[in-house]
Structure formats: structure tokens, C-alpha cells
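G., the chain you wanted modeled:
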Amino acid sequence: VLRRLGGDHLAEIGVMAVNAVRGVFYGVVGTACVQALLMVLGCWLAGIPGAIPIGFITLLLALSQIGGPLIHLVWLAGAYWLYTQGQTGLVLWLFAVWGIFVTFIDNILKPWLIGASMEMPLTL
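Predicted structure as C-alpha cells:
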């Protein structure tokens, strides 16, 4: 339809718009899924009970886009639980670093996934 209305140039713009929407979807949902899986893995390895519900909460917060910073509260709660259980050494430290990594990966993975499906510069 766009090709008939405006020629090849308008059809090209339509394809670019579709790729942009697809890239944003993959970036937001893909990054949220990776963050949730990494949180489940970290909780499971640290021995925190309820790793899957914690991962689901992480997924919901990451998907909401406004709740992304609240992921800090999820891993801080896990670190606090480890502290109350007497794990004040390497496990607590590694889980805190893991939580920061899970939160920070959003800044790397999302732009990469969004930009992978577009022909535009990422700044646009």
C-alpha cells in the first residue's frame, strides 16, 4: 500500500518503521528475559530460596521500564537474606556483584538488541 501511495521511498520508510518497532520489542523483552534468567541463576547458586519467584519479579520490573531501578531492591533483599543467614563472606560479596551486573546488563544488551535490527544509527 505504501509503495502505491508514495513510491519506493515511502515503502522503504515503512520497512524502517517496522524494523524499529521490532528492534525495540526485542530489546525490551529480550533484555528483561536475560535479566530474569541471570537473577534466577544467581539466587540459585547463592542458595537463596524462591529463586524462580524472585526471577519473575525481576522480569516484571524490567519489562515495566519504570521499575528497572527497583531491580536493585530485589538483589539487595537477597543479599540481606544471605547476611542474616551468616553468609558474610565470599557468597554475599559475589551475590552483590552479581546483582550489580544483572542491573547493569540492561545498559549494554538493550541498545545492542535494538540496534541489531535497524539500518539507522542507534542515536536516532
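The mean pLDDT is 84.

Shout if anything looks off.
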